[in-house]
Amino acid sequence: MDTGVSVVGSGQVSGTPDILRVTFGVEQVAPDVAAAVATVGERTDAVIAALRAQGVQEAQLGTSSVNVFQEYREPGTDPAYRASHTVLVETKDLTGFGALLNAAVDAVGNSLALHGLQFDIEDKTELLIQARELAFQQAKTKAAHLAALAGFSLGSVTAISENNGHTPLGPETRLSASKAYDSAINIVPDEQNVVVSLQVHFAWA
User: Fold this and answer.
1) Rounded-to-integer distance, Cα 99 and Cα 82, Å
2) Cβ(167)–Cβ(10) under 8 Å?
3) Is pLDDT of 25 > 90?
4) CB count, 10 Å around CB of 136?
5) Is-contact 30 80, C-beta < 8 A?
6) Are strands 81-91 and 112-120 parallel, antiparallel or unpaired?
7) Which has the closest alpha carbon to 113: 147, 83, 90?
8) pTM of the model
Protein backbone atom coordinates (compact mmCIF):
# COMPACT_ATOMS: atom_id res chain seq x y z
CA MET A 1 0.00 0.00 0.00
CA ASP A 2 1.33 3.42 -0.97
CA THR A 3 2.05 5.76 1.88
CA GLY A 4 1.92 9.49 1.74
CA VAL A 5 -0.74 11.96 0.74
CA SER A 6 -2.48 12.86 -2.54
CA VAL A 7 -3.82 16.38 -3.02
CA VAL A 8 -5.29 18.49 -5.78
CA GLY A 9 -4.13 22.03 -6.45
CA SER A 10 -5.54 24.49 -8.95
CA GLY A 11 -4.18 27.65 -10.48
CA GLN A 12 -5.97 30.24 -12.57
CA VAL A 13 -4.62 33.18 -14.55
CA SER A 14 -6.31 35.58 -16.95
CA GLY A 15 -5.27 36.82 -20.36
CA THR A 16 -6.52 39.12 -23.07
CA PRO A 17 -8.21 37.35 -26.01
CA ASP A 18 -6.79 37.81 -29.49
CA ILE A 19 -9.09 35.56 -31.56
CA LEU A 20 -12.81 35.66 -32.28
CA ARG A 21 -14.58 32.55 -33.58
CA VAL A 22 -18.07 32.87 -35.01
CA THR A 23 -20.22 29.94 -36.12
CA PHE A 24 -22.84 30.64 -38.78
CA GLY A 25 -25.41 28.16 -40.03
CA VAL A 26 -27.39 28.12 -43.28
CA GLU A 27 -30.59 26.07 -43.26
CA GLN A 28 -33.34 25.21 -45.72
CA VAL A 29 -36.44 23.05 -45.61
CA ALA A 30 -37.70 21.62 -48.91
CA PRO A 31 -40.07 18.87 -50.08
CA ASP A 32 -37.17 16.74 -51.33
CA VAL A 33 -33.53 16.21 -50.40
CA ALA A 34 -32.09 17.46 -53.68
CA ALA A 35 -33.83 20.81 -53.42
CA ALA A 36 -32.83 21.30 -49.79
CA VAL A 37 -29.19 20.47 -50.47
CA ALA A 38 -29.01 22.60 -53.62
CA THR A 39 -30.52 25.65 -51.91
CA VAL A 40 -28.25 25.35 -48.88
CA GLY A 41 -25.23 25.01 -51.17
CA GLU A 42 -26.13 28.18 -53.07
CA ARG A 43 -26.83 30.17 -49.92
CA THR A 44 -23.70 28.95 -48.18
CA ASP A 45 -21.69 30.16 -51.17
CA ALA A 46 -23.43 33.53 -50.86
CA VAL A 47 -22.55 33.78 -47.15
CA ILE A 48 -18.91 32.87 -47.80
CA ALA A 49 -18.70 35.44 -50.60
CA ALA A 50 -20.17 38.10 -48.30
CA LEU A 51 -17.66 37.24 -45.56
CA ARG A 52 -14.78 37.31 -48.03
CA ALA A 53 -15.93 40.75 -49.13
CA GLN A 54 -15.51 41.84 -45.49
CA GLY A 55 -11.85 40.85 -45.61
CA VAL A 56 -12.10 37.31 -44.22
CA GLN A 57 -9.42 35.15 -45.82
CA GLU A 58 -10.03 31.64 -47.15
CA ALA A 59 -7.81 30.17 -44.43
CA GLN A 60 -10.08 31.76 -41.80
CA LEU A 61 -13.17 29.91 -43.06
CA GLY A 62 -14.07 26.27 -42.60
CA THR A 63 -17.02 23.89 -42.59
CA SER A 64 -17.74 22.48 -39.14
CA SER A 65 -20.78 20.35 -40.03
CA VAL A 66 -23.18 19.39 -42.83
CA ASN A 67 -26.52 17.74 -42.09
CA VAL A 68 -29.49 16.48 -44.10
CA PHE A 69 -32.46 14.82 -42.46
CA GLN A 70 -36.19 14.28 -42.80
CA GLU A 71 -38.24 16.49 -40.55
CA TYR A 72 -40.95 15.09 -38.37
CA ARG A 73 -44.39 15.87 -39.75
CA GLU A 74 -47.88 14.98 -38.63
CA PRO A 75 -49.23 11.80 -40.24
CA GLY A 76 -50.90 12.53 -43.57
CA THR A 77 -48.81 15.61 -44.35
CA ASP A 78 -46.23 15.85 -47.12
CA PRO A 79 -42.67 14.94 -46.15
CA ALA A 80 -40.04 17.64 -45.78
CA TYR A 81 -36.27 17.58 -45.57
CA ARG A 82 -33.94 19.97 -43.78
CA ALA A 83 -30.41 20.62 -44.97
CA SER A 84 -27.89 22.66 -43.05
CA HIS A 85 -24.31 23.79 -43.46
CA THR A 86 -22.32 25.25 -40.57
CA VAL A 87 -19.42 27.59 -41.27
CA LEU A 88 -16.78 28.56 -38.72
CA VAL A 89 -15.07 31.94 -39.09
CA GLU A 90 -11.89 32.74 -37.18
CA THR A 91 -10.64 36.31 -37.12
CA LYS A 92 -8.26 38.50 -35.17
CA ASP A 93 -10.53 41.49 -35.67
CA LEU A 94 -12.29 41.39 -32.31
CA THR A 95 -14.49 44.37 -33.13
CA GLY A 96 -15.70 43.16 -36.51
CA PHE A 97 -18.50 40.84 -35.42
CA GLY A 98 -21.34 43.23 -36.28
CA ALA A 99 -20.06 43.77 -39.81
CA LEU A 100 -19.68 40.03 -40.40
CA LEU A 101 -23.15 39.29 -39.08
CA ASN A 102 -24.80 42.01 -41.11
CA ALA A 103 -23.00 40.93 -44.28
CA ALA A 104 -24.08 37.31 -43.81
CA VAL A 105 -27.70 38.26 -43.09
CA ASP A 106 -27.76 40.61 -46.06
CA ALA A 107 -26.63 37.70 -48.24
CA VAL A 108 -29.26 35.11 -47.25
CA GLY A 109 -31.77 36.75 -44.89
CA ASN A 110 -33.71 34.42 -42.64
CA SER A 111 -31.87 31.35 -43.91
CA LEU A 112 -29.01 32.36 -41.62
CA ALA A 113 -28.54 31.15 -38.05
CA LEU A 114 -25.93 32.29 -35.55
CA HIS A 115 -24.91 29.24 -33.55
CA GLY A 116 -22.36 30.92 -31.34
CA LEU A 117 -19.38 33.17 -30.85
CA GLN A 118 -16.31 32.70 -28.73
CA PHE A 119 -13.24 34.67 -27.79
CA ASP A 120 -10.00 32.79 -27.31
CA ILE A 121 -6.26 33.18 -26.82
CA GLU A 122 -4.17 31.77 -29.63
CA ASP A 123 -1.02 31.01 -27.63
CA LYS A 124 -1.67 30.02 -24.02
CA THR A 125 1.84 28.72 -23.31
CA GLU A 126 2.92 31.39 -20.82
CA LEU A 127 -0.47 31.46 -19.12
CA LEU A 128 -0.38 27.69 -18.67
CA ILE A 129 3.08 27.91 -17.11
CA GLN A 130 1.88 30.52 -14.62
CA ALA A 131 -1.28 28.57 -13.79
CA ARG A 132 0.72 25.36 -13.35
CA GLU A 133 3.10 27.03 -10.91
CA LEU A 134 0.17 28.33 -8.87
CA ALA A 135 -1.49 24.91 -8.90
CA PHE A 136 1.65 23.14 -7.69
CA GLN A 137 2.22 25.66 -4.93
CA GLN A 138 -1.35 25.22 -3.74
CA ALA A 139 -0.99 21.42 -3.81
CA LYS A 140 2.26 21.59 -1.87
CA THR A 141 0.73 23.89 0.76
CA LYS A 142 -2.22 21.53 1.20
CA ALA A 143 0.02 18.49 1.47
CA ALA A 144 2.28 20.14 4.05
CA HIS A 145 -0.73 21.09 6.14
CA LEU A 146 -2.16 17.57 6.02
CA ALA A 147 1.23 16.07 6.86
CA ALA A 148 1.55 18.33 9.90
CA LEU A 149 -1.95 17.43 11.06
CA ALA A 150 -1.12 13.74 10.78
CA GLY A 151 2.23 14.07 12.50
CA PHE A 152 4.35 13.35 9.44
CA SER A 153 6.98 15.21 7.46
CA LEU A 154 6.42 15.76 3.77
CA GLY A 155 8.73 13.84 1.45
CA SER A 156 9.31 13.87 -2.29
CA VAL A 157 6.75 13.93 -5.09
CA THR A 158 6.05 10.47 -6.50
CA ALA A 159 3.32 11.22 -9.05
CA ILE A 160 1.66 14.18 -10.81
CA SER A 161 -1.28 14.30 -13.20
CA GLU A 162 -2.56 17.43 -14.90
CA ASN A 163 -5.80 18.75 -16.34
CA ASN A 164 -6.10 22.15 -17.95
CA GLY A 165 -8.61 24.26 -19.75
CA HIS A 166 -9.90 27.77 -20.21
CA THR A 167 -13.22 29.53 -19.91
CA PRO A 168 -13.93 31.57 -23.04
CA LEU A 169 -16.73 34.09 -23.48
CA GLY A 170 -19.53 32.94 -25.71
CA PRO A 171 -22.47 30.81 -24.64
CA GLU A 172 -24.37 29.14 -27.45
CA THR A 173 -26.69 31.70 -29.00
CA ARG A 174 -29.24 31.82 -31.75
CA LEU A 175 -30.54 35.14 -33.02
CA SER A 176 -33.37 36.11 -35.30
CA ALA A 177 -31.62 37.00 -38.52
CA SER A 178 -33.93 39.89 -39.37
CA LYS A 179 -33.56 41.44 -35.91
CA ALA A 180 -29.81 40.96 -36.02
CA TYR A 181 -29.63 42.89 -39.27
CA ASP A 182 -31.82 45.75 -38.03
CA SER A 183 -29.75 46.38 -34.91
CA ALA A 184 -26.11 47.11 -34.21
CA ILE A 185 -24.67 44.33 -32.07
CA ASN A 186 -21.55 45.34 -30.20
CA ILE A 187 -19.63 42.70 -28.30
CA VAL A 188 -16.88 43.39 -25.78
CA PRO A 189 -13.98 40.93 -25.37
CA ASP A 190 -13.64 39.76 -21.79
CA GLU A 191 -10.61 38.37 -20.00
CA GLN A 192 -10.09 34.65 -20.60
CA ASN A 193 -9.34 32.38 -17.66
CA VAL A 194 -6.76 29.63 -18.09
CA VAL A 195 -7.02 26.97 -15.40
CA VAL A 196 -4.64 24.14 -14.50
CA SER A 197 -5.48 21.42 -11.99
CA LEU A 198 -2.76 19.13 -10.64
CA GLN A 199 -3.16 15.95 -8.64
CA VAL A 200 0.09 15.45 -6.75
CA HIS A 201 1.16 12.54 -4.57
CA PHE A 202 3.78 13.19 -1.89
CA ALA A 203 5.54 10.43 0.01
CA TRP A 204 6.25 10.77 3.71
CA ALA A 205 9.79 11.78 4.56
Assistant:
1) 28
2) no
3) yes
4) 18
5) yes
6) unpaired
7) 83
8) 0.76
